[in-house]
Amino acid sequence: MDDTQLFSRQAENRRLFADTVDALGEDHAGDATLCEGWDVRTLTGHLLQPMLVPSWRFLLTAARQRSMARACDVFAARLGDRPLAETTAELRRLADTPSKPWYIGPSGPFVDTCIHLRDLAEPQGLDVTVPLEHWHAALEIIVSPRGRESFVPDKGLLEGLRWETTDTDWSHGEGGTVTGSAEALAMVMSGRPAYLDRLSGDGVTAVRERLGA
Length: 213
What we know:
mainly alpha, Four Helix Bundle (Hemerythrin (Met), subunit A), 2 domains, 3-stranded mixed beta sheet
């Protein structure tokens, strides 16, 4: 998938995310998401980071915080510190802004929009999700060398296992089998234990142990 396709899918998913947040409304701004420590307001702010925070500024903040994760926390809280409707309006306004971070390029913001939509929707019991072809593409990115560095929390999580989707023609690796939908595999690979019960296969026990679930 080329950069133009990734930019288009970034925009599509940002609008879907904004629509989902607006449907929840301000009363749900403080609700928990699957991102530890982030409520709906903070997660929505994070979606603006690729468009509003240049790579140099992010890296400078990460150096000051001595952590890229803490730098994300800083910007998510700052960008989301206002009424939800204002944040979603800006997300729509900037949705078509091409985002290409220094390390992973447009693949990173694209995968983020897939995963974070479900981080938002899953605790709310909403079945809104990105198209299946987006999840297929997200899996290819997650298992790539830079994708692993960016999205897989446990560096050994994917090793010695064969990951297979039930809704697309995709597999990765060799070993004990871990089977599930493309969405479920992507969410577990990126460290979301809430999706473990949607997986099957003789490799699932190892995944649970590696995620400490």
